[in-house]
Protein: Sulfatase-modifying factor enzyme domain-containing protein
Amino acid sequence: MPEKMMATRRDAAVLCDPLPAFFRQVRTLSAALVASLSDADATVQAMDDASPAKWHLAHTTWFFETFVLRDHVPGYALYDERWPFLFNSYYEAEGERHARARRGMLTRPALDEVLEWRAHVDAAVEAALPGLSAEARALVTLGCHHEQQHQELLQTDILALFALNPLAPAIWAEPRTPPAPAPAPIRWIEGMRGIVEIGENGADGFAFDCEGPRHPVLLHPHAIADRPVTNSEWIAFIDDGGYRRPDHWLSDGWTWVKANAVEAPLYWRRAADGGWNAFALDGLHAVRPAAPVTHISYYEAEAFARWAGARLPTEAEWESAARCFDPEGGNLLDRAGPARPCASPAGEGVGQMFGDVWEWTGSAYLPYPGFRPAAGAVGEYNGKFMSGQFVLRGGSCATPRGHVRASYRNFFYPHQRWQFAGVRLAKDL
Amino acid sequence: MPEKMMATRRDAAVLCDPLPAFFRQVRTLSAALVASLSDADATVQAMDDASPAKWHLAHTTWFFETFVLRDHVPGYALYDERWPFLFNSYYEAEGERHARARRGMLTRPALDEVLEWRAHVDAAVEAALPGLSAEARALVTLGCHHEQQHQELLQTDILALFALNPLAPAIWAEPRTPPAPAPAPIRWIEGMRGIVEIGENGADGFAFDCEGPRHPVLLHPHAIADRPVTNSEWIAFIDDGGYRRPDHWLSDGWTWVKANAVEAPLYWRRAADGGWNAFALDGLHAVRPAAPVTHISYYEAEAFARWAGARLPTEAEWESAARCFDPEGGNLLDRAGPARPCASPAGEGVGQMFGDVWEWTGSAYLPYPGFRPAAGAVGEYNGKFMSGQFVLRGGSCATPRGHVRASYRNFFYPHQRWQFAGVRLAKDL
Amino acid sequence: MPEKMMATRRDAAVLCDPLPAFFRQVRTLSAALVASLSDADATVQAMDDASPAKWHLAHTTWFFETFVLRDHVPGYALYDERWPFLFNSYYEAEGERHARARRGMLTRPALDEVLEWRAHVDAAVEAALPGLSAEARALVTLGCHHEQQHQELLQTDILALFALNPLAPAIWAEPRTPPAPAPAPIRWIEGMRGIVEIGENGADGFAFDCEGPRHPVLLHPHAIADRPVTNSEWIAFIDDGGYRRPDHWLSDGWTWVKANAVEAPLYWRRAADGGWNAFALDGLHAVRPAAPVTHISYYEAEAFARWAGARLPTEAEWESAARCFDPEGGNLLDRAGPARPCASPAGEGVGQMFGDVWEWTGSAYLPYPGFRPAAGAVGEYNGKFMSGQFVLRGGSCATPRGHVRASYRNFFYPHQRWQFAGVRLAKDL
Amino acid sequence: MPEKMMATRRDAAVLCDPLPAFFRQVRTLSAALVASLSDADATVQAMDDASPAKWHLAHTTWFFETFVLRDHVPGYALYDERWPFLFNSYYEAEGERHARARRGMLTRPALDEVLEWRAHVDAAVEAALPGLSAEARALVTLGCHHEQQHQELLQTDILALFALNPLAPAIWAEPRTPPAPAPAPIRWIEGMRGIVEIGENGADGFAFDCEGPRHPVLLHPHAIADRPVTNSEWIAFIDDGGYRRPDHWLSDGWTWVKANAVEAPLYWRRAADGGWNAFALDGLHAVRPAAPVTHISYYEAEAFARWAGARLPTEAEWESAARCFDPEGGNLLDRAGPARPCASPAGEGVGQMFGDVWEWTGSAYLPYPGFRPAAGAVGEYNGKFMSGQFVLRGGSCATPRGHVRASYRNFFYPHQRWQFAGVRLAKDL
Structure:
């Protein structure tokens, strides 16, 4: 249960209910993430895949108002009856909704109004919490994790927006750390073999439905890299003609490269000196060689691996390797600010499994054996997206600490790269 | 004020310079038009054809800063060297520019920053005015008329944006006037015949280059309606299957109707009682039967005319009929507020030539005999748009008073209808 | 034969009926035009704008079967009741029809079956002709002129198809004539001024409805070039950066140039020696410098004229200049074979008005004063296309001799260039 | 013949070389498959996903000419040096090629010319076969299996083309068999559990590279249906609102249903009596209730399974179940003619694993552990398509007998349904 997880973090001996604090912490972070945004910044939609920051704030609030307050708090009246239509995302069972591609047209309600709605709903949830049923409490918990997902999206979506502005404005202006030394060459760590169990069984704390059921898988002899691929290694790929030689690429990937004239990770721009700059949450800066490459698509990750004579890990390989690491360790998001992937620390063995960058696996996002989605609208959470996407693992520098787990399955289409997505290599033994 | 300017034009002995007042009046009105808009309202772009309100404010300022201050005021330093790239519209001679379809991505600079830029440029222009050359003064005048055009676009573009919001927010909340009585049936007024002159000769005051040269045209026997078509008449067209019978329509028009499932003017929505509401600058209200129909495309105007056994006037017919009317009379824009077409006043003879709604003519937008665009960037103002568009005449309720003339040629593509465009019938005799 | 028909027009005393011979001549030429085509050649559709050769053969046959045999010959039974759905082009009054973009999917009926249908319909029309009413005879005449239009389209559509084949197969293999000497530089011939009449009055022989009513127009002082622009002159335009400088172009034209990477007339290809080849009905050959340029769009014609300091003629200017020439003279189509524009012959005064290349005018395709389309399905022939297109005049090397007249108005969209379209310059005096 | 080949596999003592006979049998069948097609039928491309029949004939010939004759037969001169550009499909290593979407524009070379080329290449291969190296022989074998794949595509592509013809012409006119009795309700057969091996090891006869390496997989407790889903069962799904309820569908699937207004399998059309007809290789006929449903997408298969409370089998489940069946038994293609899925025969246990319809599995098409594509151009055969597609198993009525195996992995995108694709259910135990 998440209560345990939360408690564990701060205090081994918890006497009181951790859910209110978790709720408050999550809700507070969302508001902090938009602190540097104007009303306009929070309203515009960078592309169909992205949503406005304001929409994220409202949609996560809609989730609590609908599934907790409306359904479980007798007498609760909707704050504004017209807003559910605006802020439902994709829950067909909840009826018609505003078209996704038009989310950026909603200049009203304004950011301030949405923040007021948030305060109203927060107060109502907090007031109701002590008396909520276990079912309703589970929905609050789900809503918090749901909101944490949107916190990451909020950051990547606002980054996508600011990247379209020729002024390249920094979302967060904080001093940069000095460049890290180049990490040692990749070392290959042999993975477990034979039958291992992966997935969540619902007994160890919160997990999304798609993370289970826990089940045995058969691992083939393999090794996994001790760290993600760095920007410096990626530049070697570029310099070796990586984006110009079709034999490195999946057929769909090559079509995508040509159709979009792709020649570097998203947000990279040629500098005047021939090097590379990258646009990030802290503005436009020179690419940092030692940091993990990010904002790459599955196609790019796969092509790089082919070029490197390796492959992507399967999600079972990844998860079995990650089991021994603390999912709350690593470069994850603790506070509002310019999330940045960091260079690998010196060390032995596998590192950086959690945080920094999501790692593309070679596994398609499909149901585990025995998977059944939950009944009702919340059952639309994960299962219905199980076609055409690939699994990413491990969380990123923009993932709220506490949100990710070894069993956590993120998923995107192979061409998408506006997330903090990177790559760790694997190979057969 | 434009009235003074008009007077000045005709009076060789100028005692006081009307240009500063004209400049100030125009610049002030633009700011007033966005008074009810939030930063977000002013930033979002409703569609590719439209621009954000903030962009209009900035682009008109760019015009003065570039063509007047930069080119004619020694020592003037650009307010921000990065902004011309953002706010050039289509002047190829002025270099590369931000893509039109991405104008809505520019959340920075914010509305306030743009307003500050406006103030800075206003002060610089006003300071420079007394010493400007005649050439530079002509550019200030051009800039004012240019800005008046953008004032109208600003209103129609923000209307297009708010129309996409399911909340149907009113841009201006002002009490509605009581419904007007139905006007008398259309009366046909015989037009001039034989050779008449149309167009501007550049001697009577400001005009855009495309309005001249003044030249003779041959008018065929014809009559023109005494007023525009009303909403009530349009409803009769709808009820008679006007949008369902291909024989009323141009081939391209019928394709457009089917592809877009058009069944009424833009912004009309079926009311619960089976009648029609329309979304306007003052929100969603029942269609007012006596007012001129607006937000129709050329295709619709032409189909209606065919259905009515009539045709559209040519621009020469229109202009010859309009010569006897005061272009500063009529329902034009005097101040920021909810511009609305009004019902025809009782009266005899042709009416409502100026104001209320732009009137589609049956004339393609093409150069007059002897037309030559001006040299340099400002020569891109009109001439390069002379293909595929039709001429509209007369101004609308959203056109600043003083901006329109009998010779004024507005132009849009035949499918476009987000302007205050309506229709006046004509017929052969 | 059209010559006879023309004679008939002028001779009130008709001794023999020319219509059967005209019908036979037209129908025979169509079949001859496909003589070198395989079933596959005649079936495939090169693009949405074009139609398969087989479709042209069938559609023109459908016209006679529907409007003459079905409607005016009692007891006539349709050859195949399923075929009208396939071969109606755009006559809404004739009901639903096969989608235009899918004409190339109709591998059945085969070319041979369509030719059999033609023979069947030909026999039925010829048998019926002596007893047909004047109304029905007018439809036969219309059908013949309609088919002549499709004869030209058939040639340009099959050219468009073969141009997509990397083998560049020649449609007609005939020896080329030796290159012509370069014509003298363009001379400017002063045009008529003042009021002249243009258009057909229906009394002088066949004309399409859109060519009338005959009406006075006012001509402004102008001059017209004595010949069309040549390939050699076009190469000078290219070499001077004509396709790279936006200031030559209409705004829509420049967008079109960039979107399609246009750098030369359609079908031109860079030769190995840096010169230009062009693909034509007789295969791929070096561009002939002295011949009129062809396969250019309105945008290109207009840009060239701007570059040359001239403009396009209006259709009234063109028609008034053409009145003194024999529309059956010139390089027009007499027989099936590789139609080619030819170099201007030596001579004085205006030349090449008829034949060689259609000449883009600067006039939008709009109704003449007093124009009313015919009632019924044949009324859809012309009038409904009167938006967005420009008029071309004079016929081309692919226009059957006898088909074109001084009053003849051809029309295409400004981006279209798969017709034999060229340009003659004009200028203001 | 493939029978012999199979024998060869199992029998170490080979007395005669089966490859020439296999080659001849494959090449002969291709030609027989186009026997009823006209030149036009064989030339037109129904859609981007499909290719013209003539192209299939030519491309398979190009494969032998390029990889066998050009590369392994000294002195062989290409039949026509321009044709490889036309008929390479997607082998980047073989250079530039004609755009896939324009294959239908190639009316030349004609069908007859391609058949002559085939004869020429056949003679050259047959002459060379006795002296070919083992490497070259392997390429001949690969070419034969490659051509068998194209034989199936040829049939489905020509079906797609004829389905666009409103005349609904039958490709093969053969009498239909009387309707089969309805099969018994689906019975669930328990599958193997624990570790089993799947995939080919290259030692048992021909297999494509993607079928290996053979490797252990872990099977979870499950059952598999004894037969595919029938048309009658599919009609129950339709009648129960299967295509109208989003909760049955994957998110991408529901988007696809709405965007394409899908309401039944491809080629189904409402009959006048409210029932269903289906267009097939033998024309338009009433849907046969007892036969397996076909021409469904993955999305439809998955939605049906959800509706039925079941799921799709994984490819490992399918393969382990199929191991005990003869892959040369079942309703597969023996000769040119109207391939049709047949009703399940009476019987016990799992049936119809091979033939009738390809069966969508729930497995994404991804590499097996240890998979490495072959070097060179033929290495582009399979591996580069491993993203976004799902695996289908078992072959269909249009798959040449001898071509399919238990390990055979076919793959298509989840929206594609012009193949003979059906569905067999599975469930967890």
